[in-house]
Input
Amino acid sequence: MIKNIIIKSALIVFLLGTVSSCLDYEDLRENPNEPNSVPPSLIFTTLMPGVIGSFSDTYQKMQYHLWIATDDVFAPNFNNGFGGGFDYSTLRNIIQMTKEAETAGAPAYAIIVKFLKAHMFLEMTRRMGDIPLSEAGLGAERPQPKYDSQKSVYIQCLNWLDEVNTELGTFIAANPGTSIEGDPYYNGDLKQWQKMINAYTLRILLSLSKKENDADVNVKGRFSSIVNNPGSYPLLTGLADNAQLTYSNEDGFRQTYNPDNAVYRDAVVYVGTYINLLKGKQDPRLMKVADPTKDALEANPIEAEVRADYNSYAGADISVAATENSAKKLDGDFSFPNFEKYWNYVGQPGIFMSYWEQELHIAEGAHRGWAAINAKTHYDNGVTASMEFYSVDATEITTYLTAKQPYITGAAGLNRILEQKYLAYAENTDHESFFTTRRTGVPTYLFSSEHNSITKYPVRWTYPSSEDLDNKNNYRAALRAQFGAEVDDRDQVIWLLKD
Output
């Protein structure tokens, strides 16, 4: 099924073209040698939110792992990877998918396209701040679109997400059993999509925790409506509901960390920020994700004892000189990803949205007093689901939740929930871990100006440099409105992060 989707996806990319293509969609429609219509399912596949596999560069900035290549010794530059972009080609395809859905008499696609549109704008605004929305995609009518405030973008996107839930619920009730094509996550099951979209909405609401008292955004009210009305807002119910992709040893299905890329096995080590948190909590996920250090294995011939000892594991200090980490790696001081679990073509699935994320979001919202529900229940659900994802024994999970890291109230309890989010996000779910740490400061990232090229951790992505040429007046007005000056750098604090 997924392989057919990818083949069709390649076709639609050709048909719709890319940003650099000489022809746009309308040119193709008017060409008698080309098809006059494209099924909305093909466009849908190209618009699907993707996943980022384990041990990619993305997760290095969140301090889960570090790349230490013997012949390429450099400390991570945390200024890299924070250049933003406007995804107008995706917006054009969203607009076209809506038209094709109407032409084909396929209303389900026209409903879900609101989620795709909300996701696209949210991913841009979470990174950069104010962005064009109301005038985006108008082409020649508005070649230089104005920027909408980040607050208004969030309100509009939350409204779209709420509309999707309502409209999907109505459609499913009137058309039971109807499915859609081109779906790599749920094989077209619209009920699953409705649950996932509501879980995604909770993600966005928790990202707005600093705006919990803004009446216009109504974070608390929206959150309470979702968690207190399961009949109207169905949610994920277990790991089987995860929106995820499974890797395999087939073209197009391999993750980067696999035996075909031998250099990864020697270069990727874990970072202390992650490993020390697991060790400090005596978290059994540690033994599932990591191997003991070479030093620990050599010190005790009984391997089972070594693997059961939390002190057998260690991560690199990401803030020190690259030469120091390189020497320690060669000396056998660091833990590598668990060989049996990861060094193959399957590894762990690529996650877009998970049950454990949803439950920890509900736990955090309840802990903050946004709804009169039991925060402990959802904390336990989230931690349990994360551990089950790593195949932790049920007895160990129970011990962890009753004796090691039980739910607690107060500020310490909130910190514990946030730490559990960081552990659950390890090497999955794209930038969600970074966004949570950026919002809350948990955990504390390590860095040094001497080795990591920053004096403080970046908090936003810069706008594309082309904006100062193509949309200069609106671009500079947006900078002044947000930051009080025409400054576009990684240190400016966007509305989302202001108390």
